[in-house]
Design a protein that fits this description.
heterodimer; A: four-stranded antiparallel sheet; 38% helix; B: 311 residues; Rossmann fold; 2 domains
């Protein structure tokens, strides 16, 4: 789960990470009030989305008055912001963060992160901030400083000092850097982050070290330890189908195509999408009902697909290992009773009780096309989607 | 016979009285796996009973199977002392699973198979740290189907009947996609020396590289099939390793060519971050290392069989 900048700063502040002064606003009036409350002569209004590249995309606006702050907020709120990282549709802006303006001396980069490849946690520093760390890592890997964080012990003071010296943060800034890095590492471990990124970390003209921007990504698997964070998952960031799927503990990701997929297992679900593409079609979603699923979850999953107006065909691909295919079929029938799908359904059931499942579906009167392999299923779904498209064109 | 386990391997089940643990411990027992004990804190001294069945037992799933009376222990240490177990499979729910795994490491078990899905990544780092101090211990998973040596021993949740004894080693990050590939091989009349699911999480125990080495050393394995997916760099490391140290034929498949960046595709580890971890770049790296990669998930079985000159 990724958190908005304002949420991340709220949380980091509790751990003693110095962050900018500022507050979130959901309306232009709140933005104006925030400007007044900050009390300075200037502020920055920042769109709150879960993607980078806001500055270049016009999502960060310097303002000189409460009126300007309100105007900037009105401009940003309730509209999608498209950045280099959001994709063409952009992300809806539900809040802005009104932040005090600072005079900057230096910009750096600091993050605590899960290093998958090394199977360890690391703190990463770079003397160049505000840029994409991936770019630096690719072009000038020597500029990246790493300290390995022991999962039981966190960062040690000597590691934080070494980091500070290598970043050129000595003198008065040394103690501040050690305190900053220690607090950041503590937040990283205690909040079960996969990433706690401060980019940029800045030194102000007054000699203070603080997080000008902040990005927190919490491990979804660790949410059971952080019930207080669940409410921070902002609803307007979620697609309706994805939110519905989450309620039923299903894994769903919306894609751009027109063939709905319902598959058991993540790997097989991805492979099914790939197979559709290979056959010249386009998947509308990733949907994993789980390796050991049951009738209710399948019914909920099928309901999500049946409600998707974009679909021209539905492909059900189940490899029944532990899960019995006849229970899957019952789930589909239950969902179809609630809402009759308007599009052809291609079904491939294999393994445990596949025959019984197919018989159930065959006798149901639904528009079901049987497929006997993964390749066959994808081919038939692509063909069905194409002919459904033609049929709709003829109707109009 | 294949790697790591055989019909004599003595296996514990941690979490044997839970829904999944009970179901799969019984299924493994019926397959022929020597399930010698269960571990459930607070239930030590009780027994986990598997009723006899007239059919449904044995590797073929059709043989009669005698009843099983499996003793349950409070701690892994007790279980190891009483049963001389060498391996364990863990079904303990995610919040307590890493603790169960560390308990198994400390008790000296040589093989730990963690089936549990949803273990926090930082918990797995702690498990890894304990594992580093126990070089004799191997951990498979988490979030995986486990390991099977067809005809010998099954420690996991995979459906037994799609497998057949043979000489193809299969290692995969996925569950049902592995079943798909295994079934393709079996349908063609060939079999598997062992199938290992290394799991779909970002931090796992066994890696592709470790599994490749086991298959390379195993005299019963003639070729290796590797099934990867988006996210991380495990496939890239494996490609490098194959080039350097694996002489047996290797073939691969990578799922997720159509996956969008930045989205977790079911598995916690299946996510393209920035430009890293795409299926296309993994396929390219594998091919550059001389490994044939199946274009289509429907052709995974044939790709390894062709690499081995079997078809």
């Amino acid at each position: 789960m990724r958190l908005h900048e304002y949420r991340a700063k709220e949380l980091l502040c509790k751990y003693g990470v110095p962050v900018t002064e500022g507050m979130a606003a959901a309306t232009p009036e709140e933005a104006a009030a925030a400007f007044e409350k900050l009390g300075g002569t200037g502020a920055v209004v920042k769109a709150q989305i879960l993607a980078g590249g806001r500055g270049k995309a016009g999502g960060v606006r310097p303002v000189r008055s409460a009126v300007e702050a309100a105007r900037a907020a009105a401009d940003l709120l309730g509209k999608p912001l498209v950045t280099a990282q959001t994709g063409p549709g952009g992300q809806m802006v539900g809040r802005v963060y009104v932040q005090r303006e600072y005079d900057l001396e230096r910009e750096l980069y600091l993050a605590a992160a899960l290093d998958r490849s090394g199977a360890r946690a690391v703190m990463i520093g770079c003397a160049e901030g505000g840029v994409e760390i991936e770019d630096i890592a690719a072009r000038r890997p020597g500029k990246i400083i790493r300290e390995v964080l022991a999962p039981w012990a966190g960062i040690q003071p000597y590691q934080a000092r070494r980091l500070a010296f290598r970043l050129g943060l000595s003198g008065r800034l040394l103690a501040q850097t050690v305190q900053f890095a220690t607090a950041l590492a503590r937040a990283f471990f205690e909040l079960d982050c996969v990433l706690a990124e401060i980019n940029p970390l800045v030194v102000t003209k007054n000699g203070a070290l603080l997080a000008l921007d902040a990005k927190l990504e919490i491990d979804d698997n660790a949410m059971f330890r952080h019930p207080e964070l669940a409410s921070m998952s902002d609803q307007y960031d979620q697609d309706a189908a994805e939110a519905e799927a989450r309620k039923h503990d299903l894994s769903y990701v919306r894609l751009d195509g027109d063939i709905g997929c319902l598959v058991n297992g993540a790997g097989l679900a991805m492979a099914t999408m790939d197979m559709i593409k290979l056959c010249g079609g386009s998947p509308a979603n990733f949907l994993d009902v789980g390796g050991g699923t049951d009738r209710e979850r399948v019914a909920a999953a099928f309901g999500i697909l049946a409600a998707d107006a974009r679909l021209k065909a539905i492909l059900v691909n189940i490899f029944g290992g532990i899960v019995r295919c006849d229970l899957i079929a019952e789930g589909i029938l239950e969902a179809a009773r609630r809402a009759i799908p308007r599009v052809p359904i291609v079904v491939r059931l294999e393994g445990n009780s596949a025959g019984a499942g197919l018989d159930l579906l065959a006798g149901s009167g639904l528009d079901i096309i049987r497929a006997d392999s993964l390749a066959d299923a994808a081919r038939q779904a692509v063909a069905a989607a194409a002919s459904d498209g033609r049929a709709q064109a003829n109707r109009t | 016979m294949g790697i790591l386990i055989d019909r004599n391997t003595r296996v514990l089940c941690q979490g044997i009285t839970g829904k999944a643990g009970a179901f799969h411990a019984a299924a493994c027992y019926r397959y022929g796996t020597r399930i010698v004990g269960g571990v459930v804190p607070g239930k030590g001294g009780t027994f986990f009973d598997v009723p006899a069945c007239s059919s449904g037992g044995g590797p073929d799933g059709r043989s009669p199977c005698p009843p099983g009376r499996i003793p349950v222990f409070d701690t892994v240490e007790d279980a190891v002392r009483e049963t001389a177990a060498e391996a364990t499979m863990i079904f303990v729910p995610a919040p307590a699973a890493s603790d169960a795994a560390i308990e198994a490491v400390e008790a000296g078990l040589k093989l730990i198979v963690v089936i549990t899905e949803g273990i926090p990544a930082l918990d797995m780092l702690k498990v890894r740290e304990q594992l580093a101090r126990a070089p004799e211990t191997r951990l498979i998973g988490p979030n995986c189907p486990g390991i099977i040596v067809p005809g010998e021993c099954k420690i996991g949740i995979m459906p037994a009947d799609i497998h057949a004894p043979g000489d193809i080693g299969v290692v995969s990050r996925s569950g049902t996609l592995t079943y798909e590939a295994v079934a393709q091989i079996t349908r063609r009349g060939f079999g598997q020396s062992a199938c290992i699911g290394i799991g779909g999480d970002p931090i796992t125990g066994m890696s592709f590289v470790e599994a490749l080495d086991l298959f390379q050393e195993d005299q019963h394995t003639a070729g290796i099939l590797m099934i990867g997916e988006i996210g991380g760099d495990a496939e890239e490391r494996a490609a490098e390793h194959v080039k350097r140290s694996i002489t047996k034929p290797v073939a691969a498949f990578v799922a997720g060519l159509t996956a969008p960046p930045g989205r977790r595709m079911g598995h916690a580890g299946a996510i393209i971050s920035g430009r890293a971890g795409t299926a296309a770049s993994k396929v390219e790296t594998l091919r550059a290392a001389g490994i044939p990669v199946a274009d289509s998930p429907a052709g995974i079985g044939d790709t390894i069989l062709r690499a081995m000159g079997r078809i």
